[in-house]
């Protein structure tokens, strides 16, 4: 759930939750922009890769937007320190300056984007002086940052929790995407956008549709994507829910509170600790009329409220794959046996599927894989 903002921002701007970038863009970019992303603490291997560029031959210029003086900020060419919660003012200003000084790619915008005139209208009031009064960043620094972006030939932008867990998070993440789009900085080596993940398996859930969207980065609002998934699953398109946006987590708990959801299965997350309004969430989870199943590697606070606990194996106790933020897939091989009654998540779900006896439109098993390799 940490990357809900990233998923929504990517779908809104590109029609798909898959990121348009590669980690190799770090090796080719002449400008790197980090928005609320302290790479030195959150992605240490990626930071070493960036440091190799920053301390090597022909280093890229580095823009850092972060209220704190982090190790990343100390390496910055330009460091913007906005008041917490004012990211949108900073980003609107950067876009306003790029447009006002005609530092944009008109051909790319015309050929590859929609809605540019509306974007220009929204950001027009956010000149450096106006934005500075909101975000506390000196106007000259905002102008200098926009100039740095406008001079870029290969721009790599990254975003993490400093944006995602702040005011107007999704709008801010979408404006970062818009910066690369108005500059035409996408689809070429060194040009990309990383709406990063907070956990190493967040991309897996998004890629497979476990975050409420459709598998394979398919968009429920795109009829071609729905038809393609129906073909792969051999079901009728109408069997795939796609009439509206997926039910978000807080709405799910609202339904549970009202009694329309009577069976809740929680896998690998701990809502009794992590969600807003904890007293309310815990009372919902503890209802007698709610049948709660918790699948986890620990006896969490949520598991303590469960009617059934399914002990799961952790990563070293099962074979499977990890998907990086740039969609590269890595094989993770089983190292040791799971303890006690713990089982791999896939085995638990396949066992449940057998009991449900799900079928496709020809009467064949809907889930026809049996192990990690065939599932992949």
Description:
- The chain is α/β, with parallel strands linked by helices and 376 residues long.
- The chain has 3 domains: 4-195, Dimethylsulfoxide Reductase, domain 2 (3-Layer(aba) Sandwich); 204-246, no CATH class; 247-375, Rossmann fold, CATH 3.40.50.740.
- Helix content is 41%, strand content 12%.
- It is built from 18 helices and 10 strands.
- It has helices spanning 4-14, 25-28, 39-42, 44-54, 87-100, 106-112, 116-123, 128-135, 139-150, 161-164, 169-183, 202-208, 223-233, 249-258, 271-274, 278-285, 345-356, 372-375, and strands at 31-35, 61-65, 78-80, 155-159, 192-195, 263-267, 291-296, 308-311, 320-323, 329-332.
- The strands form 3 sheets. It has a 5-stranded parallel sheet with strand order 3-2-1-4-5.
- α1 (4-14) runs parallel beside α11 (169-183), α5 runs antiparallel to α8 (128-135) and α5 crosses α9.
- It is globular.
- It starts with a helix and ends with a helix.
